[in-house]
Amino acid sequence: MKFEVTILGSSSATPVFNRNPTAQLLNCNEKIYLIDCGEGTQHQLIRFGLKASKIDAAFISHLHGDHYFGLIGLLSTMHLNGRIKPFRIFGPAPLKEILEMQFKYSDTVLRYEIEFTATTADVPEVIFENGDMTVETIVLNHRIPTTGFKFTEKKRQRKLLSEKLEADQIPVEYYPLLKRGLNLELPGGKLIVNADYTRDSEEPKSYCYCSDTLADGSYLDSLRDCTMLYHEATFLDELLDRANMTHHTTALQAAQIAKTVGAGKLLIGHFSSRYKTLIPLLEEALTVFENTELAIEGNTYAI
Ligand SMILES: [Zn+2]
Ligand SMILES: [Zn+2]
Predict the structure, then answer these.
(1) What's the pTM?
(2) Residue 66 annotated as catalytic
(3) 136 Cβ contact list (under 8 Å, min separation 6)
(4) What keywords appear on the UniProt entry (predicted)?
């Protein structure tokens, strides 16, 4: 199953040095989800040859402009392009009011329905589920109510060992039962032990998205053993005081968190506009957590 994330924006606060405010596109078995939607997201989609019409839902972490100022434009474009498929939005409750007001005063009646689900920054909760994955909020510690999102694949059925099944002439009609892990008794009394004909499917992968937050212990349980952690790393650790004051994280802290929770890999982003080159942020994180990469716009990272 395809499970990958493409970075559309990696900047905090303002667009600068060819970096754009936060936005990511998650592909989970060809269902496409937008995570945050900073200003310029539409331009980034066009630049990287990605289609807005394919996006099924948007997950908005909080109401600082660098995480949602692109949303109204994107929704308007989908309307102008004739979208009729409903669009789901998950985000803080006031976002619904903000969008409705913008549409009201531009006298826009969308051709498609927006299905809005309000998130709360109180306790982690499952907000979305389909056959492929579950999405749970991560309660972050920022200056205004903020949630991250944890996307977890669902466990797949057992894999069939085709050669063995064929060699022993097991009838095809039993395959679905074997995939579900059942032992069988064939007509005539022959016993089929499931483990002889199937193997376990891969362990489900998970992607945790954390932006923006003070690096504290409050949300670490939500991140345990995730396959890939995206964590904001707005500053170098020499600006730790500023990070604490503004409720942001340093690259060093992001790496410490990845190590503490046992993440498989770490992707850092949400870089301050003061950094023209990002290499020092990467180097700082690498001192603590080896499997770290920079979130570079246009790059796609397999989870
Ligand atoms: Zn931000
Ligand atoms: Zn913020």
Answers:
(1) 0.92
(2) yes
(3) 124, 125, 126, 127, 149, 150, 152, 222
(4) Endonuclease, Hydrolase, Metal-binding, Nuclease, tRNA processing, Zinc
